[in-house]
């Protein structure tokens, strides 16, 4: 019925709700498309498949209404069940009220799962919907496994979804006699019967096969065999149920590739061969400073867990800092020296409180203890005049610091905003060079609250493969709030002083950074992990991560 004259809704105020079917990729959060991130940021209601749920939620508004597709009756794929067509209809009132419902699918909506049923339900009910494609599991997983699907013109590739079938129900007869590369999405428990069926249908028993579990994630594992040996290989790897153990859910979906392209994997495997692939690494730093280090560790294939051990708080008496900022503006100082990112942050916050910006540093020489602190200053709009050319520490800064010269230096005073527990090395060195120093407490460092019980148990029980210590205080505070890391855990320290503190707490230091920077420390740990992996490979072992070794069996890579 047409709206009456009195029921006309003004233009631009009608509800514009819709459903977006969004491909969230095969598991790696980095495979979300730019369009996907844009759509998620405008979601009112989110219905997420389980594999990528945590990743997509990070891009949603704070007040988004959350639904778990695995628990709310959506079809997902054959390994789960449920009636997606019926479940999606429960959200139609939200769409009709003008809300944006985003339905994320693991992989691609058109190829993975059974989102087509939900789309059809929307179309039949007149509910507006759109589709945002994603990286399909059958494409992304082989790429991460180092198995190219095509080797030039004429190569035939066929995608098979047998995940919704019982192990003996899929008809392989039309695929056994072809030479195409088969990309099979199926249940792990179905693989032995599927391989047997392919051979019975005409495929050669020696046809190469790769099987990838938890593809594109840092838990990815790929096994290679032939159709004839597949079952035995998976049982030997303790992936399929056997009299020894069955640690992997045999009903979980995997991606298998059947064909000669699998032979390229030893040469093209790039993901699982990263130096710290799959390593769980504890990063005990202040929360604000852990991001760059964690990102670097991820680039090496690691899984960083950020556990704050230090909390940064304002000084108990702010008057000293207030006087210092006033003196900086009125020309009391020739130099200001920053020994940490936190010092830069403390001064910047005071500037913002007083309505100042980087222009207040005009006419003042600025020193930074190292590259990280220097970058924090650059981000503030200040280019340091002095950064150590050698060791990035207070001692290195003193090596390059000029003597006070009354002819060239009209002012003999240095402002040093620091932590309340900072050492006196820099102050004493500057005084010896002829400078007067205003040593000001810009912030306090206090011990953070203990991490959750699960994290504490993992630290003490060997659940982490490595711990990265970036200062002596992180060593003391971690041991104080969570206990001493297990003996199998690799200990990496940023410098000799931190290593000494670690040893005083009974820890064996495995990795020492060649330079006192977090980037150099992460790189040194990656080199250690690569050497460990090479040693294990040469010894014919399949255990690369320290936490996979039983206590007492740990051997150190040289």
TrEMBL record:
Q: Which InterPro entries match?
A: 4pyrrol_Mease (IPR000878), 4pyrrol_Methylase_sf (IPR035996), 4pyrrol_syn_uPrphyn_synt_sf (IPR036108), 4pyrrol_synth_uPrphyn_synth (IPR003754), 4pyrrole_Mease_sub1 (IPR014777), 4pyrrole_Mease_sub2 (IPR014776), Siro_Cobalamin_biosynth (IPR050161), Uropor_MeTrfase_CS (IPR003043)
| Gene3D superfamilies attached to this UniProt entry | 3.40.50.10090, Cobalt-precorrin-4 Transmethylase, Domain 1 (3.40.1010.10), Methyltransferase, Cobalt-precorrin-4 Transmethylase, Domain 2 (3.30.950.10)
Q: Which CDD domains match?
A: HemD (cd06578)
Its EC number is 2.1.1.107
Its domain of life reads Bacteria
For the region Disordered, what residue ranges are annotated?
536-558
Q: Which residues form the Tetrapyrrole methylase domain?
A: 19-230
Which residue windows are transmembrane per the record? Answer: none
Q: Which UniProt keywords apply?
A: Lyase, Methyltransferase, Porphyrin biosynthesis, S-adenosyl-L-methionine, Transferase
MF terms in GO: uroporphyrinogen-III synthase activity
Q: Which Pfam families match?
A: HEM4, TP_methylase
Q: Which residue intervals define the domain Tetrapyrrole biosynthesis uroporphyrinogen III synthase in the entry? A: 292-522
Top-level EC class as recorded in UniProt: transferase
Keyword Nucleotidyltransferase assigned to the entry: answer is no
The record's listing under SUPFAM superfamilies reads: HemD-like, Tetrapyrrole methylase
What this protein is called in its record is: uroporphyrinogen-III C-methyltransferase
What species was this sequence derived from?
Streptacidiphilus alkalitolerans
């Amino acid at each position: 019925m047409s709206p009456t004259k009195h029921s006309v809704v003004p233009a631009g105020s009608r509800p514009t709700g819709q459903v977006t079917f969004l491909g969230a990729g095969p598991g790696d959060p980095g495979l979300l498309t730019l369009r996907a991130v844009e759509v998620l940021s405008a979601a009112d209601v989110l219905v997420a498949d389980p594999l990528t749920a945590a990743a997509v939620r990070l891009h949603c508004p704070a007040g988004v209404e959350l639904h778990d597709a695995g628990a709310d009756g959506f079809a997902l794929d054959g390994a789960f069940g449920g009636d997606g067509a019926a479940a999606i209809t429960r959200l139609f009132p939200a769409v009709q009220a003008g809300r944006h419902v985003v339905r994320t699918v693991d992989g691609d909506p058109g190829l993975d799962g059974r989102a087509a049923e939900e789309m059809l339900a929307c179309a039949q009910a007149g509910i507006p919907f759109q589709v945002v494609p994603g990286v399909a599991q059958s494409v992304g997983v082989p790429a991460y496994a180092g198995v190219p699907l095509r080797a030039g013109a004429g190569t035939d590739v066929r995608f098979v979804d047998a995940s919704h079938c019982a192990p003996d129900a899929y008809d392989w007869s039309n695929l056994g006699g072809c030479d195409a590369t088969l990309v099979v999405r199926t249940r792990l428990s179905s693989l032995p019967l599927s391989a047997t069926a392919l051979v019975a249908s005409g495929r050669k028993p020696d046809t190469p096969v790769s099987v990838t579990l938890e593809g594109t994630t840092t838990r990815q594992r790929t096994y290679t065999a032939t159709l004839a040996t597949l079952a035995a290989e998976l049982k030997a790897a303790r992936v399929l149920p056997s009299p020894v153990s069955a640690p992997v859910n045999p009903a979980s979906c995997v991606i298998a590739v059947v064909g000669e392209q699998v032979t390229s994997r030893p040469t093209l495997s790039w993901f699982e061969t990263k130096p710290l692939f799959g390593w769980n690494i504890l990063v005990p730093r202040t929360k604000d400073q852990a991001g760059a280090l964690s990102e670097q560790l991820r680039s090496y294939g690691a899984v960083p867990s950020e556990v704050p051990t230090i909390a940064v708080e304002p000084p108990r008496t702010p008057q000293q800092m207030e006087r210092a900022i006033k003196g900086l503006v009125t020309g009391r100082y020739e130099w200001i020296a920053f020994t940490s990112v936190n010092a830069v942050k403390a001064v910047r916050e005071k500037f913002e409180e007083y309505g100042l910006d980087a222009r207040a540093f005009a006419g003042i020489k600025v020193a930074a203890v190292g590259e990280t602190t220097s970058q924090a200053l650059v981000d503030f709009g200040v280019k340091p005049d002095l950064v150590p050319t050698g060791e990035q520490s207070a001692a290195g800064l003193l090596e390059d610091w000029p003597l006070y010269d009354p002819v060239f230096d009209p002012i003999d005073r240095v402002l040093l905003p620091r932590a309340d527990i900072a050492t006196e090395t820099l102050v004493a060195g500057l005084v010896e060079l002829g400078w007067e120093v205003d040593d000001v407490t810009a912030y306090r460092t206090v011990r953070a609250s203990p991490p959750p019980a699960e994290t504490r148990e993992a630290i003490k029980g060997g659940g982490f493969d490595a711990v990265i210590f970036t200062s002596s205080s992180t060593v003391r505070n971690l041991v104080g709030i969570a206990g001493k890391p297990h003996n199998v855990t690799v200990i990496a320290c940023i410098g000799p002083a931190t290593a000494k503190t670690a040893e005083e707490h009974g820890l064996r230091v495995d990795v020492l950074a060649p330079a006192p920077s977090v980037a150099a420390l992460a790189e040194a740990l990656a080199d250690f992990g690569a050497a460990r992996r090479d040693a294990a490979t040469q010894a014919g072992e399949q255990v690369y991560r320290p936490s996979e070794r039983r206590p007492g069996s740990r051997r150190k890579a040289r």
